[in-house]
Design goal:
It is a single chain. The chain is 55% helix and 9% strand. The protein is an alpha/beta fold. It has a five-stranded mixed beta sheet with strand order 4-3-1-2-5, sandwiched between helices. Helix 10 crosses helix 13. The longest helix has 21 residues.
Length: 280
């Protein structure tokens, strides 16, 4: 047919896709699989259907590698287009610039500022405290924590995590101040942030405007340790320790947790990861 019609059969050549080439150019996410801050970054990549590589680190031995890469020791870290970016908020900003569709930042300036303000509030006033409180409940349960840290790894790495955990645990307890008084205060801060999420919810069912934004993603991801949604990419191993189970039961009726479960069900979607590996 003509210029705008069907191509002749001899012109219909299928160009093979080299998966190795795609993987070589794909963003690389360095993470703790169980981390709620890593979940923020993962979710943004998955929501935008960005093919990427996930490299899960074992806490403790991760320090030298991440220190060499970034000059600090926290994850997640994203390798994107030759840049190395740390901090989940900066990572999402970079993903939004590189892959603008579907957007996580509202187009309206005031709505965008509001979404970013909520993201910052939740990063500072929810994320650290739900983690501190959570580890206070979990650290006494060695088998649970080591499975959370290395459950996706092979047998050798799982055994390695079990062997080093007696050394890792006191460092975690000291660094995050996982002590009774501090954990009690962290619980109160977590509930206060949940209360604000409930107050901020709009009639639309979202935190800002009429649709899903970075504010909703951040709130739901950072609440994931309590929500434990089935859509979370790494299911918890075995039974939940009693202190955490009791905390979840006590807060199960809170509007923020119910809302976060609904956001996961509606917006979490499937993984866009090309490959995953656990590294030491």
């Amino acid at each position: 047919m003509g210029l705008y019609g069907e191509l002749k059969s001899e012109s219909k050549k299928v160009i093979p896709v080299n998966k190795k080439d795609i993987a070589a150019q794909a963003p690389v996410l360095w993470q703790f699989a169980i981390s709620h801050y890593a979940e923020k970054a993962r979710w943004a990549l998955d929501y935008k259907h960005v093919p990427h590589i996930r490299r899960s680190l074992i806490p403790g031995p991760h320090v030298p590698r991440i220190k060499r890469m970034t000059g600090q020791t926290a994850v997640p870290v994203l390798e994107l287009g030759g840049a190395i970016i740390f901090d989940s908020t900066r990572i999402i900003e970079a993903i939004e610039k590189a892959y603008p569709d579907p957007p996580l930042y509202p187009a309206d300036r005031e709505a965008r500022e509001r979404a970013l303000e909520l993201e910052n509030y939740l990063d500072e006033e929810l994320g650290p405290y739900i983690r501190q409180w959570g580890y206070f409940m979990l650290l006494p349960y060695s088998s649970t924590v080591t499975a959370l840290f290395a459950g996706q790894a092979g047998l050798g790495k799982r055994l390695f995590m079990r062997a080093i955990f007696p050394l890792v645990r006191p460092v975690m307890r000291s660094k995050m101040k996982v002590y009774p008084a501090e954990a009690g205060a962290a619980r109160d801060k977590t509930v206060a942030a949940m209360d604000r999420i409930a107050r901020e919810l709009q009639p639309t069912g979202y935190l800002v405007g009429n649709g899903f934004t970075v504010a909703d993603l951040t709130a739901a991801a950072l609440l994931s340790p309590l929500v434990m949604p089935k859509e979370f990419p790494y299911p918890p191993p075995g039974s939940i320790p009693a202190p955490l189970a009791q905390a979840r039961a006590h807060l199960a009726a809170h509007p923020a947790l119910k809302w976060a479960a609904g956001i996961y069900a509606k917006h979490r979607g499937k993984s866009a990861a090309l490959a995953e590996e656990t590294v030491i």
